[in-house]
Amino acid sequence: MKRDLSQLTLREMFSDTERLTAELADHLELGFLPKNQQLIRMVRVLPEGVEKRRIEDISVRNQAADLLKSDQFTQELFTKLDEYLEAIENSIEGIIDGN
């Protein structure tokens, strides 16, 4: 069971924030962006003279669903990261104010 953020030391919060930032960067680079590019390639309009291939609606829907799932995970990571950054800010303000 995870401890409440207010119970973590600054060092623990910074370490967790660093881990979350790396996880977010990896996810964006290796998950979200490739899925986004794949969907873009799938639905882009091809110029005249280029052989067009038939793409089924279900393929586009499945690719869009994968991208939406990836976006949901991205949003969850951003939310966690934001919570940590707020906790760090509150902790530092407490130190500055002498609490």
- Spatial extent as radius of gyration: 21 Å
Q: What's the overall average pLDDT, rounded? A: 91
Beta-strand share of residues? under 5%
How far is the first residue's CA from the last residue's CA? 27 Å
| SSE ordering | HH
Helix content: over 70%
Question: What class would the helix/strand composition place it in?
Answer: mainly alpha
Largest sheet report: none
Number of strands: 0
Please work out how many helical segments DSSP would assign: 2
Overall geometry comes to rod-shaped
- Spans with pLDDT under 50 lasting ≥5 residues? none
How does this structure look, described?
By secondary structure, the protein is an all-alpha fold. Helix content is 76%, strand content 0%. It has two helices and no strands. It has helices spanning 10-43, 57-97. α1 runs antiparallel to α2 (57-97). The relative contact order is 0.16. The model has no long low-confidence stretch (mean pLDDT 91).
Record keyword descriptors for this entry.
2 helices, rod-shaped
Map the helices and strands.
Elements: H1 10-43, H2 57-97
Helix pairs in contact: 1-2
How would you summarize what this structure contains?
With 99 residues, the protein is mainly α. The chain has two helices and no strands.
